Each structure stands twice: as C-alpha cells, then as structure tokens.
Records
---
Amino acid sequence: MSLAFSEQDRKELQVAKNLLENPGVAAKITNFIGSPIEKGLALLPENWNKNIGEVTQKALLKASEAAIFTMKDIPGEASSNIWHKLGVAVSGGVGGFFGIAALSIELPVSTSIMLRSIADVARSEGESISAIETKLACLEVFAFGGNSKSDDGSDSGYYAVRATLARSVAAASEFVVNNTLTSEGAPLLIKFIATIAQRFGIQVTEKAAAQAVPAIGAAGGAIINTIFIDHFQDMARGHFIVRKLERKYGKELVERVYLSLPKLG
C-alpha cells in the first residue's frame, strides 16, 4: 500500500516542478544581453552545428573523468553553490575574452565545475555520491534544459526527458557496476553521454550564440557562464528533490502527483 502524499512533500515537489519546467538558458541569457539569441546564432561559424555534438560530448567525457566526486560522501550536507559559480564565472571570462574559438577549451573546464556542483546538490538532497546511480543521475542533469524554443514540446518535459534517457541510463549503469565510470572502450557509457550531449548541445549553442554577440567581452562571458551554471544548479535541485521523494513514495506516485501540479507561466 502506497504512502499518502504529505502536504509538505507536495509543496516541495511543486518547487521542483517550478525549477524544472521554467524557461531555459536562452530566455535567461536574452534578458541579460537585451536581444534575441537568434541574432547571435547568425554570427556562429557555418560548421558550428556539425562540431557542437563533438565539443559537448568531449566536454562531458572530460568532466566525468575529472576528480569531481572526491568530496566527502555525507548525504544531506548543504551545497556550496557560490564557489562553483565563481569558478565558472572565471572560465567564462576567459572564454568571453578570447571569443568563440576558446569554447573547446573553456567548455570542458566549466562543465567539470558544473558537474561537481551538481554532485554537491545531489549530496545535499540525501544522495550518496559514491553510488553509480547517483553519478549517472548527475550527468543526466545536463539533459534537462527547461522550456526551450529548440525543443519539441512533446518531449521537453522533465519526465519525458527521463523516459527518453531511461534505457541508456540502465545500460550504462549495468556496465559501470563491473567497470569504472571512465573505463577505456566503454560503448554503453559513451552512448549514454552522447544522448546527454545531444540535449546539452542545445544549451551550449545558445550560450555560444550569446557570447558571439559583439561587445560581450570577458565581463559578459563571465555573467553568461554564471547564468549557465545557475540554470543547471536549478535543474539539479529540482531533479534531486524529485529523486528524494521517489525514494520515499515510489516513482509512479511521484510522477502522477508531479504531472497533476500546476505549471508556472
């Protein structure tokens, strides 16, 4: 028999939904630069779309290889979001100074910092960051973009994205149980990261488009990166609140309540 969903948990789930279904990176950055992202997209190199998948996939692989899960495994410990924001702002400043050409260098650095921040949020919501499932759930966060013009409305909702990822998550989890997270020649893990990269690439393209706008410079690059990490910290907070409630009530009930809750906007 399932537990009755408490009012307090319902309110917390509403907070999670407000975070997860909020406008994406493009809308937030557009408010900062004062012009639509589309103007910046026109300034990107012709071969950009061809290269973005490779750039984002390499960034995610580098991030997963980095020592991001070396923090003490103390579930429930408060996350230190501000330090991660400062680190990403610095890397964004460098990227903004050198322009779009520096993205392939800057993105792996900022993605690694963001992934560590996501793990920090996971830990604060009671996850054991030494668990394989948690590590994969941290990588999943990069697929959650919020509402985006680039998304097909039918598959952009939080649970729709999780359903899309479910098979590759299960396959990657099964592989990693018997190997390390970054074993050489890990096709199932590579496939999982490629699936994440496909969605993360949308957000990266929007970030790059904003940084391509003339006069953004180092200061603008730092602010855009701060917006970028703030967005994924929000996605992480929402994701790990949902996972915490799923551990308590079961996924089916939480999903049902989540979908019944009102959506902002």
---
Amino acid sequence: MKGKLLLIALLLLVNAGYAQTGDNAKLDQFFDRLAEKNKAMGSLTIAKEGQAVYTRAVGYSQISATEKKPLTGTNRFRIASITKMFTAAMIMQLVEEGKLRLADTLSKFFPQIPNAAKITIVQILGHRSGIPNVKRVGDRQGNISSKDPITKDEMLALITKSEPDFEPGTRHLYSNAGYFLLGLLLEKLTGKSYEEALQQRICSKIGLKDTYTATGNIDVAKNESLTYMSLGGEWKQMPETHPSILFGAGQIISTPNDLVKFVQALFDGKIVSKESLELMKTMREGEGLGMEPFTFAGKTFYGHTGGGDNYGAWLAYLPEEKLAIAYTTNAKVYPVANIMSGIVDIYYHQPFVIPGFETIAVSPEVLDKYVGVYSTPGAPVKFTISRKDTTLYIQPGEQSAAPLEAVSENKFEVAPGVAFEFDADKKTMTQKRGGLERVFTKIKDFKQ
C-alpha cells in the first residue's frame, strides 16, 4: 500500500511538471519552419514566475548586399501600441498620487479639444472618448508623409481641429490620438519629458535596461532591428513612421525580456497598486485601461498588441500561472496572432500541427493565361499581373510588383489571408480578403 501511494505521488508530480513545462523542442521546430520559409523574423521570451523558460530569435536585424546580421535576444524592437500599457500605468500612478482623478474632464488640461468638458480621463484610457485618430494631409507631391516628424503642438492642433467620432462614453473606438493626449498630460503633470517619466517611474524601478523611447529613425548602433517585408523570398527594408507621430500611443522601444519583466512587475503590484491593476484589467467591450484580453488554449491572458510599418509585438500574461509571453517582430508575414496561438498550444501540449507553408508549381503556360491588366468599378488603381519564370507578380498602379505564391493552379496569395483567384475563361481575378470578395475584369491582355 505504501509503495502504491508513493507511485501515485510520483505520477502526480510528473503530470504536474508536464502540464507546466513547454515543449521546447517543438517550439524550436515551429520557429525553424517560420525561418526556413521566410514567414517571420522576430524574438520570443516565455517566462514563468519572472524566470525565462524559453527564448528564441529567428531572422535578421540588419540585411545588406554583403551581410545578414542574425537577430539575438538582445536586439531591440519598436513595440508600437504596447506603449499604451506603459502610458496607462503611469497615468494610474498619477491618480494614486492624487495629481489626477479618473473622473477629471479633459477641459481641465486641454479645453480646446472638442467635447473636452464631457471627456473624462478614464474614457480616454478605455478608448471611449470619441477622440478620432488624426492624420496629416500631404500636398499633391506628397511632401508630408508618416516619415516626417511632427511637433507636439502640431499634433495637438490637428486633434483640436478634428470632428469627434461620437459622444463621449457612448461607444468604444480605438484612438491613438487619445493616448497622444495622455502622453502630453503625463508631461504636464510631472514636469518631465515622457522619456524621463518612463525611466523614473517604471524602468529604473524594476530594472528595465533595454526600454526607452524612440526619437528618430531605427538606430542599428543601438542594437535596434530594422523592419523588413518578404517579397519573393527576399527581404526588402520598409520605410519608417516617425516616432514623434506615435508618442504616448506607440513610441517605446524594448525587448521581449524587458516586456515580460514589465508585465510581471505590473501584476505583482510593483508599478501600480492592486486596486489600480483591477481597474486596468476590467474589460468593457473588450477593452480595459491600456490593456486587452486574449484567449489562447482556452485560457484568458491580459496584455496588449502593437504594430506598424510591418513591425509588431504581442505581450500576454496569465495571472493565475504567472506566465508571461512576449513576441517582437521586425517582419510580419505569417499572422502574429497565429504565431502566438501556436506558441501557447505548444506550451500546453495542445494538438498543434506545424504549418508546412508549401506552395505548388504552376506551369508558365497556365500562368500566362492570367497575365494582363485588371480593373473594377470604384477601385482607385488597376492591377497588372505579370510573369517572371514560374512566378506571377501583382502590381497595383505604379507601385512595386509583389510576387504571388500559388496555393492551387488558379489561386494565389500575396500574404496570409489575402488571395487572388483567376478564371481564365471569364477573364476575371477575384480578390479575397477578410471574408470579402472583389471581382476584377481583365481589360488588357499581353504576352510575356
């Protein structure tokens, strides 16, 4: 009997360990496949109770004609909207210090904003303010673009001139401009720059050594990762949105290692109080205060996502298991949501088939049937389909041509979830994206 009890105890221990230990070999296989097929470049950290249990980096931080510099766990990435978690946490600190109330209206700080007397701080935090996202309009030569810097006063003027999307508190709509204002508010109430406040209030407090705000273009001298797009198996560097446009909504640079430390400290009560954290993670229409919920493997995680210019990041935390997952990428190809879902399924030993990412070979004779110029009423540009060797290329208007990957003899993908299906007899090309379809008709035929 004693021996039987000992055996049961050992089995329970083994099973408990199995349930909480990820399949690192399979995670390696998954990321090997993503790298092999040019479906991702990025860096991952999985941490439990503050300790890393798996790290992996695939792809390159810098690509030139003569060199490809591999990504490592020390490379820094633009984390885009995960910045909002940091901004929200610092706003909650100001509330705890009595320098601000969640019920305060925007009129107390920026009375020139439309509806300022109706908009509360908590509504901005939860994207329920009605403050619209604003964009600069360039001249006919396109001399103003997202690559150009903007001053805080210029952005504030744009927000002031904009029409509200809805009456405050009546609905939810994601607003980067709202978090731009929260960044300004943080500076106004602390008397410090956003960067100084970030370092004092979060980074130095919990030991984040690779987290700071971007001030200009990606700097490889600081171990920052350039952003790329995969075109026909080749990586092409992408242009960069100037970080001054993003500010408190998306200006931070970090690493997966720092991100898991941040979210663990946040949930451990080292950045804000437990009461403030509860407010941040209380969801309304799928949105908390600088925080979002995610469901992976039937479990509810909390965190945030971020993306822009083909870079991105995802931070997710499971409180009951103190499990943190941070993935940063400088080249989005295979959807980041699918990568995160695969990571969690593998970690919990759920059924997960590593994608093959296989394409098929289509003969040049068949491909030539699809070559031509296509248009549809209401579309701003015509699409030119051309062939080079055994690959079809699609070119919208005067933009660069991108390769299409064949998934069947008449169906091709330019990116996951964006497909083009050809009917040579009807001379049509159907674009399929996000459940929507648009039919283009060939208006010009030509031979390769």
---
Amino acid sequence: MKKISSGGGLVYSTDAGRMCPGCRQPVDSCTCKQAQAAPSAGGAVRVSRESKGRGGKTVTVIKGLPLDALALAQLGKQVKAACGSGGTVKDGVIEVQGDHCELVVQMLQKLGHAAKRAGG
C-alpha cells in the first residue's frame, strides 16, 4: 500500500515506513539531516526580544549559534534553566519565554560565544 501526497511524492511505504519529503528516502536513511550543516562561525550570536505573532507574549530569541542540532539542544536546556522559564529549540534558533536578553548575553559570553544584543 502506498500513499501519495498532493505534491506527487511518496510519504509512506509499507516496505520502509515514513519517507522524508525533502530527499524522498526512508526517514532512517534521510540525507537531508546530513546536508544541514552547522552555521558558520563568521558572525556574532544575536540575542533579541520578539512578541510578533505570539499573542502578545514576549520571547527571547537566540540566533546564529555555530552549533550542531544536539549541542544546540543542550545549550537551549542550559539557557532555559538559567532563566527559570520554558522555551524551545527549532530551526537553529533558541526561544526562551520572557524577556531575558541581558542574562542570556552574559551567559553566552561566559561560554565563549561572541554574543550581542540585537533589536531595540
């Protein structure tokens, strides 16, 4: 049995299970994960505060960290614990609930990252 998405690609196969929409390979042997390299360490880490599209809730956003997905998730956990609030790590960006920009910048600088405050 095969299911076909509206885009014309195979999304599930009884032989291999779930299929990656990007490379059309089984999820276990997906080549998209390997292709997503860590961002270059060329610029400073940007820490900003956002509230657009979040129902008025403020979040601290950390962008530009030159880390792989696993290291980014571990750092996100440390930052959330230091701030005493929740958050998430997705698409190479750490989001922490609340306005913790100054604390996050200080923490990242102690860890050796060139962190800057971005935005107003």
---
Amino acid sequence: MKATARNGIPIEVSKDRLRADCIVAGVDPGLLTSENITDSVQALGIELNDDVQGRVAALVESAASGEPLAGPVVLAEGVAPVHGEGAWVEFLEEAEDQGDPDGRTDFYESRIPTVSEGQVIGFYHPATSVRSGTDVYGKPIKGVKPLHSVELGENVTLAEDGRTLQAAISGKLHVTRREVAVVEAVEVAEDVDFSTGNVDAPADVLINGTVRSGFKVCSPKSVAVRGAIESAVVEAGTDIHVTGGIVGQGKAIVQAGGDLFTKFCSDACLEAQGDITITRECMNSRIRAHGFLYVPRGKVVGGSVYARKGAEIKVLGNMSERRTEVAIGLDPEILPRVEAIDEEIRKKRESAAKVREKIGPLIAQIQRLTSEQREQATMLMFQADEVDVQADELENKKKQLTQAAGPDEKVQLLVTAMVHPGVAVIFGDKMTVFRMERKGPISIERRVIERVEEICAVDRCSGSVTVLPSYTYVPSEEPVEAVR
C-alpha cells in the first residue's frame, strides 16, 4: 500500500503489513519535518509508538544535515508471527529412509519398511507453538497452525533422551501423515494370485508382490502392497499403502477406512475416509477422498475426483482438453437427494398455502359460520399446520444431510502449475469449466462477492481474485459448454 499525504510525504506499507517506509527520493528536504512525517504516518493509521517516533526524529535530523537522501527509510516495523510446525520424525537409513536427503519425512513417497524389536527408527521432533505477530497498525497477525502433526502410535517408544524413536516389536513400520507405528502383519511372500487365493486376514496385511487381477484382499486393519494392484479389490479398515501403482483396467476397487497412498493410478476406483496421496499421476479414475487429496508432484487427467477437505494438485487436465471433473467440499452424490427433498418441501408448502387460501374467506366471517362449518375450517387449518411441520422436518433433514456430506471449514483447490481447458471444478451446486489454460499457483474457492456466492480463482503470487463464470451443477446433465 502506497499513499502520499497532502504535505507530499509518500509512505509505503508492505503487503504483509510488517514494514512502513518513507519514500524520500525526490522529496523536498524542507518538507521532511517531524510534524509533516507524523501527520502522514497517522493519516495511514500506523501506530505512532516510541520506536516510530525515534525513527521519525532520525529522518528529520538526516534531512536537516543536508546529507543526500536516497532509497526508502524505514519508519515502522511490525513483529512477524511465528507459524507452527507439526511434529515430525527424522528417519534413519536403517529404517529404510522415508524422506528427503535431509532425512525429513516425505509422505509423498510410498515405501513399506520392516523393523526389528529394539531397532532405532529415527529421531522425534516435537511440534512448535504458534505465536501471533503485530503489524505496523498495531493489529495482531495470526500465526498459521500446521496442517499435520505426526503422533507416536502403537509399538513405538521414545528413549530417555526424549528424541530417539525405537520399535517395541518386530513388524511393519506404519507411517502416515498423522502417525508412526509398528504393526504385526500377516505377510504374503509374493503375489496374491492362484497360488495364494484371496486374502482375508484379521490383522494388518503385508504383500511383498502384486495383487493380481480378479483377486481380493480384505483386512479390518491396514494393507500394504510392495508391488502393484491390478484389476483387483483391496479393502482395509484403516490405511492402504501401495509402493507401486494401481492399474485398474476399469475394474479395480480400492477402499480405505483411513488414508490411501499410491504412486499412480489409472482406470480405477479409489475411496478413502481419510486423505488420498498419489505421487505421480491419476488417469481416468474415480477418486473419492473424504479427507484431503494430494497430487502435488503430478497430474490428474480424466475421470472424476471428489475431495471433501480440499485438494492440492500440480496439473489438472491435459493439452488434448480431456474432460476432468473435480468436486470440492460438498459431496456431489447427495445433490440428487437434496433436490428431491427440495421438491417435496415445495409441494408441501404449496399444499399448505392452497388450504389456507381456501379457508381464508371462511375465517374472515367465522362468526356467521355454523358449528359444523367452524369445525371443518379448524380441521383444515390443523391439516395445513401439520403439512408445514412436515416441511420443516424435511428442511432439518436436508440441513443434516448437507452438513454430514460437507466440509467442516472453508475449503479450496490449490493448483500449483497448470489448469488445462476442459477441466470442470464443482463447489456444491455450482460449477465452472475452464476453456483457456491457466497457470498456477492459483487457489480455486467459493467466496461471497458483492453478496453473491461465486467460484473464484485467487492468484497465490499477487493475491488478485478473478470471478469465474459458473452454472448450476446437475450431476445427471451433460456438462455445460466450457467457459473462459
């Protein structure tokens, strides 16, 4: 923000509101008096504390000395907030390094290590606290809370130093965005095929090979696959972790009660009650993440995607304008049910209104009615009230349905590199379709603009907001013509 007061003293406030500079270049030194500078500072609403007054005095002294003034002169500085950092684990190579060269956990990699009892897994780094800052106006700037923080799960312990993390039993090292644990697992030495048959185990399952086409793996706990999943069915009560990818040929069904990790997927149906992470790419698949969807290093092309809590994707669509549909927030599958409830509410409201319209003239002259007519009018009025009560109950049912199928807070779709033409983005009952490519990083979200809810694209570099043309989304209809 830059402003020039009537006395000709220009002051510029940084975008983060943590610094205010006096732009002295080209300003008549005679104007740089304490009164003029102070007036300009106060005109912008900048807090005139002791530090600011000291800086103003120093600037006035420099101007009075006749020394040439150039460049911006800092008049006010805020205190930057301290953003919180979630707890994380620095893994050792002996535990089959899970992360970047610096040893930090990288949840985008899909590896499935095993550990021995007493083995040192790595080092635990606890979470850091969030502290608010203060801008140059004296107003607080909130620190950002971490999205994720790793907790210590079952069968892992901290040594006396409070940092060294050890395995309490021999088993599979189970790593998600939220937890590090060691679990005992039913281990399949090679592929799941005709030599093993289907796998239905009550414990965690570790498959050292590939789940071949036509077979099924089920567990009320987690499933880890070191190979790939072909056109098979894999179901887990908690997490599913696939080192390779999922090549579904239109028949693969992979369902996780927790998080789901895979390198890539094509022509498959994936659903997780938690987050879904796809390291490389997702092609022509049906994805349903009731948590967050992460494809931060790859692309999503074709198919349909739903992410209740938001998504981060590097590239959406491709140059051939393949139709790619991404729904964020409210589950689009409930929209037909919501529409049916709305229609039923409408009919009941109209029915009650017609009854009241019919008995209106009778009520107006109720003193002239016979007892029988009064009884009939009362009964009709009672029926209208009953219908309204039923409509109110349907309204509550609709509210509960949308709350259960929608996000708990504001959500967004973050695209870090590119959105190609042919991509449809859906927020609840609104949809926008891109006709021209748009470079990232941008976040696509639903905002209230001039009292109307719109789908907007927010440039993450400049902060500029663009309202995108949107239409009513009806799942059963063909997509509308693409818009710019």
